[in-house]
Amino acid sequence: MLLCLLRSIIITGIATFNRTKKLRQTSAIKLNFKHEKSRCDTTNFNKTKFNMKRLRNIAIYYIILGILLMLSFWFFKLWKLSIIGVLLLIIYFILRYLFGVKTIPNNLSKSKLLFFDLFFYVHPILIVALIWWYTAKPFKQIILLPQGYTGIVVIDYDRKDGQEKKWMNSFLGIGGSRLIKIDTNGYAKTQFKHFNQSIPILEIENDTDDWEGTKLYYENNLYNEIAFFTREKDHGSDDLFKKITKHNLPIAYSYLNSDEELVFIIGIGNDYHKYFYNKGNMENDSDYYLQFSDSLRMEYKEQIKKLINK
């Protein structure tokens, strides 16, 4: 009898255990189903359709931005951005009114569509900012002259047999100035390329002064920069000229600045007339206005030719 009772208890325990196990499995299945259903509902809630109004608004934005850039003085050549807007607007009208498309089904979430909008609205402004930054940068170079040198200075750029490329005042190779050393004959050739940071494909030119970014020093006196006179920048700078001549200071006169050569003249104080004709000494008065300085005397022009052809 005791054995029968013990067997009944064991059988009852096993049956109870199996029922509990089945109930747990059923509950787990129900919980998983609810979780999957909730996840799917959330995903479907976050997903949306691409409304054609988005395309229309982006097209109008590009057209207006292109017109504003065209009306500006500096970026008027970027009016071509409005062409992108016109093309997008044509696509919008074709899809909306020819095919009757109001929305485009997609698998993008709202956050991804927001990123899509930000990209199309912000990236043209970033492009304009980068173009402005690039074209507004001057060609920075530091030119070291032999101590006490006066006379013609000629620099030839983009010469494979020229001075190796060296930089000054740069941080991790960024923002520095090209270093060029002039020999005792007033000549230097460098591997650096001289370029005007323009964008020909967009017809955007660098608006900085041709000589901006150029600094001159005597090699043993890097604390006193030599004044640089150009017709465009310094026309009428009588006060500075008087100060230089009074104290017999060195001064550089611009003569030629191109992608191939840089030519200028170093004089001390009243040496101006040693290198240049006065207006009254010139056969053609119009030549007087070709440079900031009066026309360079012929013997120095010949010297420049010899140095350039060196």
Write the topology of this structure.
Elements: H1 2-46, E1 50-51, H2 52-71, H3 81-98, E2 103-104, H4 110-135, E3 141-145, E4 151-156, E5 167-168, E6 177-181, E7 187-189, E8 214-218, E9 227-229, H5 231-234, H6 238-246, E10 250-257, E11 261-268, H7 272-275, H8 298-308
Parallel strand pairs: 3-6, 3-8, 4-7, 9-10
Antiparallel strand pairs: 1-2, 4-11, 5-6, 10-11
Task: Characterise this structure.
The chain has 310 residues and is an alpha/beta fold. The protein is built from 8 helices and 11 strands. It has helices spanning 2-46, 52-71, 81-98, 110-135, 231-234, 238-246, 272-275, 298-308, and strands at residues 50-51, 103-104, 141-145, 151-156, 167-168, 177-181, 187-189, 214-218, 227-229, 250-257, 261-268. The strands form 3 sheets. The protein has a 5-stranded mixed sheet. It has a 4-stranded mixed sheet with strand order 5-6-3-8, with no helix packed on it. The N and C termini lie far apart (127 Å).
Please outline the major beta sheet: 5 strands, mixed
Q: Per DSSP, what share of the residues sits in E-state strands of 2 or more residues? A: 15-25%
What value does the Rg take, in angstroms? 38 Å
Largest sheet: spatial strand order:
7-4-11-10-9
The shape is elongated
Instruction: Classify the helix fraction into a percent range.
Output: 40-55%
Structural class based on helices, strands and sheet pairing: alpha/beta
